[in-house]
Amino acid sequence: MKFDTSPERSRGRRLLPLLLPPLLLSACGGKDVPPEQYSSNDTALPALTSTLSSENIQFSHKEGSEDQPDSYVYSGLSSMTDTLASYVQALEEDGCSPIDTNGVVKELPDFSVSSGSVSMGKDTGDGGVFQLQIAWEGDTCTITPVYAAELRITQPSVQALTVSEAIQRLKSCTPALLGLSGASMEEYEVYAEEGLVLVDSSPCLQLNVYSSTPRQYRGCYLMTVDGAHLYQLDRDVSQVTELTPYSNTAVK
Predict the structure, then answer these.
(1) What is the distance between the alpha carbons of residues 40 and 49, in angstroms, rounded to a whole number?
(2) CA gap 107, 138 in Å, rounded
(3) 149 phi/psi in degrees, rounded to 5
(4) Are residues 66 and 23 in the same domain?
(5) Does one domain contain both 139 and 173?
(6) DSSP H or E stretch at residue 63
(7) Plot region of 149 (φ>0 → left; ψ -120 to 50 → alpha; else → beta)
(8) Total domain count for the chain?
(9) The last residue of a domain, from among 94, 117, 148
(10) In terms of C-beta density within 10 A (0-12 exposed, 13-18 middle, 19 or more buried), how is residue 147 classed?
């Protein structure tokens, strides 16, 4: 049985399910046996059964065709939110990432909604991506393994902060997070130095903080150019410390 994501983007490969004795699931009609893993040649990912507890769940295997992949259907799941969260976490620990149709890594969906879908992909090492397309509705979860030969997993592009944006983000922090006194950063002035410095190979903007009255130097802070991380620099010992919790969102 061949599995293609599309005529243009992928070549079909035979997916070989490893069979699991039906200890947790009851097969519809007594014919289908749930797989222990979904695999594509040398790449294997754990099946949904790997994170299921012993509950009465119905399983069925929907065979595909030359241009449609097989699907595995699990019904009667009592807590879909917990089931999906646990399973996706296991897939992430196995090297998978949530991706869109172009292979770009994206955020996980809200598993608490009544229906939805997510594609978890893993690089196969031979230039392709092995995906598990996971869809759920009500108490039923359908998993469709797909191999995409020409797909590549990539990170989303990130736009670098401007100097003024970095200054505004620092001023939005609380003085307590920055090790400063006072109730608001309105009591301080922030200036950026020219150029970038590296922290763990990540380029950072260097921001100096001064008190307004009297005007005195209070500290130096390093912000990654995507705005995702903030560090405090101790100039005396040339040591940086990451400041947490630093609530921020990188510019997309």
Answers:
(1) 18
(2) 22
(3) -65, -35
(4) yes
(5) no
(6) none
(7) alpha
(8) 2
(9) 148
(10) buried
CA dihedral 31, 37, 39, 41 (to 10 degrees): -100
Q: Tell me: cis bond preceding 145? Omega within 30 of 0 counts.
A: no
* DSSP state letter for 229: -
For the chain, give the number of residues. 252
φ, ψ of residue 112 to 5 degrees: the values are -85, -10
| pLDDT classification of 3: cutoffs 50, 70, 90 | very low
| 103 plus 171 within the same structural domain | no
Task: Kindly state whether residues 106 and 144 are assigned to the same domain.
Answer: yes
Kindly state whether residue 54 falls inside one of the protein's structural domains.
yes
Which of 114, 148, 182 is a domain's end point?
148
What domain range includes position 66?
18-148
Contacts of 168 (CB under 8 A, 6+ apart): none
Q: pTM of this prediction?
A: 0.58
Residue 29: both structure tokens together: 């009609």
Q: Which of the listed ranges 8-12, 56-60, 133-137 does the model predict with the highest average pLDDT?
A: 133-137
| pLDDT tens digits along 96-128 | 999 999 999 999 999 999 999 999 999 998 889
